[in-house]
Design brief:
By secondary structure, the chain is an alpha/beta fold. It is 32% helix and 19% strand. α1 (18-29) packs across α6 (131-140). Bound molecules: threonylcarbamoyladenylate (TXA) and magnesium ion.
Length: 349
């Protein structure tokens, strides 16, 4: 049975060692908590069929129990066991995009504990595209409920060291499989409603999903509509501890306004950090702490570095951080980048 206390000794195991995965699977089956790499970000996993083990996830992350978890499956065959009335749309999207960074929200089957779904009648499911995640799922033989393996509201972890930064002493095992490939979370689509709705942009481009469905997705509900609106929609999320100010607008404009805002903060005696685009290199006075995030022209590369760079900025000992929107108009992966930066920021200019 799962242990619900949060004090645990955390073992870091190299995922490349097959014995590590086998051991981690026994920890899962024993009701423990295992952080593991997926193609998007590291997840914090527990046996999705064990309500006590799942309760441990919320405790370890300081996550409100009203925020439902994504259930990870080893392959499509589990879809009919954890969900009910799999629609043609669900089948099409699963065939096209799994394994991969797409989560489908569907009516849940009784097998899935209400502890996973925050009492909702729906469940979010996906098949991750990462050999370590799939090996763990195969060895455990059960679906694994896993949110991102960070403390609630912090940037998601893209390396094992980020998991330890947030959760050391709170979880049983970290499987270190190196940096994750995509860097932002899965796209979430709600198929439990009459017309499919986007709940979160992410690693699978919305445009590709719309092509398969043959129609546009409804936009995400506005944040904080009520307790039942998708909780990933909470405004403050993915945030560094230092307040982040986000500058938007057309690129040339945004660049000028960013520089102006940075100069203003320096003049006020503040220590300033900037999430630096290649295009803005050498723009700022030398006393500004910069952390590179890649080029405006390469959203894929920026996605792999975004959370890591936000965490690195937090270690610079500054009073305020600035960034400009990474892609406008936002499409493809750029949409997820814009969304995450907006949620990471406390103020927009
Ligand atoms: O890429 C990912 O999706 C990563 C990896 C580990 O798979 N997971 C992830 O989980 O980002 P998490 O917990 O950080 O975000 C899950 C979000 C919830 O906050 C909620 O917005 C949405 O998924 N979600 C899950 N189940 C849902 C449901 N039944 N109805 C509506 N939204 C749901
Ligand atoms: Mg998360």
């Amino acid at each position: 049975m799962g242990r619900v206390t949060s004090a645990r000794q955390t073992r870091v195991l190299l995922a490349s060692d097959p014995e590590s995965v086998a051991y981690a699977a026994t920890v899962i089956l024993d009701g423990g908590l295992v952080a593991f790499p997926t193609e998007t970000v590291y997840g914090l996993g527990a046996n999705a069929l064990d309500a006590t083990a799942v309760a441990g996830i919320f405790l370890a992350k300081d996550r409100p129990t009203s925020d439902p978890l994504i259930v990870h499956l080893v392959d499509h065959t589990w879809l009919v066991k954890v969900t009910e009335g799999v629609s043609t749309n669900a089948r099409r999207l699963a065939e096209q995009f799994w394994p991969g960074p797409l989560t489908l929200v569907l009516p849940k089957a009784p097998l899935v504990s209400g502890a996973v779904t925050a009492g909702l009648s729906t469940v979010g499911v996906r098949v991750p595209d990462h050999p370590v995640a799939l090996a763990l799922l195969r060895a455990a033989g059960v679906p694994i409920a896993a949110p991102s393996a960070n403390l609630f509201t912090r940037p998601s972890p893209t390396r094992a060291v980020h998991v330890l930064e947030d959760l050391e002493g709170r979880i049983d095992v970290v499987l270190d499989g190196g940096p994750t490939r995509v860097g932002v979370e899965s796209t979430i689509v709600d198929l439990s409603v009459p017309s499919p709705r986007l709940l979160r942009s992410g690693g699978t481009p919305v445009e590709a999903i719309e092509t398969v469905l043959g129609k546009r997705l409804l936009p995400p509900p506005p944040p904080r509509l009520g307790p039942q609106s998708a909780p990933g929609m909470l405004e403050s999320h993915y945030a560094p501890r230092t307040p982040l100010v986000l500058v938007s607008g057309p690129p040339a404009h945004a660049r000028d306004r960013l520089l102006e805002a940075v100069r203003g903060a320096l003049a006020d005696g503040k220590r300033v950090g900037v999430l630096l685009l290649d295009e803005d290199a050498s723009l700022f006075p030398t006393e500004v702490a910069t952390v590179p995030v890649g080029s405006y022209a390469d959203p894929t590369g920026v996605a792999t570095r975004l959370y890591e760079s936000l965490r690195a900025l937090d270690h610079q000992g500054t009073d305020v951080l600035f960034a400009r929107l990474l892609a406008e108009p936002a499409s493809g992966l750029g949409r997820a980048l814009a969304d995450r930066l907006q949620r990471a920021s406390v103020h927009r200019l």
